[in-house]
Amino acid sequence: MQFNRLVDLADIFVKWSMDNDMKINKSKTKEMLICFSITKNNVDTVPRICINDTRIESVQESKVLGAAISSDLTWTVDNIAKRGRKKGVHVLPT
């Protein structure tokens, strides 16, 4: 896989957002590497994404709509289940 393509795509996204008068909040923007073809030993060879010379923080886990998703594509919905039980809805594990 060509990891430099990720940097090129980030540059295209930054240009598109500037052309459309959208501001990227660099402090809230995170990078999560999801790739099963590399090992932890060579993960440092992957170039990191920068926006306007600011390096984007790399994370191993992120919350999306209340679900915690990790870089190995496992996810948890504990918080969603707790909130649902408060409202009388029960979420069963699969």
- Tell me the distance between the termini: 33 Å
Number of helices: 2
Number of domains: 2
Strand line-up of the largest beta sheet: 5-6-7
Sum up the overall morphology in one term.
flat
Which secondary-structure class do the elements indicate?
alpha+beta
SSE order: HEEEEEEEH
Poorly predicted sequence stretches spanning 5 or more consecutive residues: none
- What share of the residues lie within helices? 25-40%
| Largest beta-sheet characterization | 3 strands, antiparallel
Q: Hey, roughly how much beta strand do the residues contain?
A: 15-25%
Q: How much is the radius of gyration in Å?
A: 17 Å
Quaternary:
single chain
Number of extended strands: 7
User: Residue-averaged pLDDT, rounded?
Assistant: 77
Q: Which labels suit this protein?
A:
94 residues, alpha+beta, 2 domains, 3-stranded antiparallel β-sheet, two-stranded parallel sheet, 7 strands, 27% helix
Report what the structure shows.
The chain has 94 residues and is of the alpha+beta class. The protein has 2 domains: 1-59, no CATH class; 60-94, no CATH class. 27% of the residues lie in helices and 19% in strands. It is built from 2 helices and 7 strands; from the N terminus they run αβββββββα. It has helices at 4-19, 78-86; strands at residues 30-31, 50-51, 54-55, 57-58, 61-64, 67-70, 75-76. The strands form 3 sheets. It has a 3-stranded antiparallel β-sheet. The chain starts with a helix and ends in an 8-residue tail after the last helix. The model has no long low-confidence stretch (mean pLDDT 77).
